[in-house]
Amino acid sequence: MFITYVIVTAFMSAVLLSSAIAKFTRPKRLVEQMDTLALPYSMLPFLGVVQIAGAGGLIAGSWWGALGVAAAVGVTLYFLGAVATHLRVRDFAGVPPAAVLAVVAVVIGGSRAATL
C-alpha cells in the first residue's frame, strides 16, 4: 500500500502544483472559469496556497503518516468544495474532473492510513 501511496501522491502533487501555478499566473482560461463560477479573483492566491500546502502535506506524509492522512482529508475537502461550487452555478462540465480528483484524494488517504 505504501508504494501505491507514493505513486498516486506524486501524480496528485503534480496536479496540485500545476493548478497552483495557474492560480498565480492567471491564464485567460482560469480567469474565464472564475467568472463562470462567480468567484472573486482575490480567492486565487488563497486557493493556490491551499493547493501547495496540500501537495506538501501529501509528500511529507511519506515520512509522517498522520500528516499524509490529514493532507489527504484536506485535499478531499478542497475538491468536494470545487464540486459544490461547480454545481452551485450549474457548470456541470466542471464537476467530473473535480469529483475524480476528490476520489483520488480518498484513495491516497486510505492507502496511507492502511500503512500506519
Explain the overall architecture.
- The chain has helices spanning about 1-25, 30-35, 45-60, 65-90, 95-115.
- The chain is mainly alpha-helical.
- It has one domain (about 1-115).
- Helix 1 runs antiparallel to helix 5 and helix 3 (about 45-60) runs antiparallel to helix 4.
- The radius of gyration is 14 Å and the shape is elongated.
- The model has no long low-confidence stretch (mean pLDDT about 95).
- It comes from Nocardia fluminea.
- InterPro entries: DoxX.
- One of its GO terms (cellular component) is membrane.
Gist?
The chain crosses the membrane at residues 38-59, 66-87, 93-114. By secondary structure, the chain is an all-alpha fold. The protein has one domain (2-113).
Beta-strand share of residues: under 5%
Which stretches are poorly predicted, pLDDT < 50 over at least 5 residues? none
Give the terminus-to-terminus CA distance: 10 Å
The number of strands is 0
Global mean pLDDT:
96
Q: Which geometry do the CA atoms define?
A: elongated
Number of domains: 1
Radius of gyration, whole Å: 14 Å
Main location: membrane
Subcellular location: Membrane
Protein name: DoxX-like protein
Membrane topology: Multi-pass membrane protein
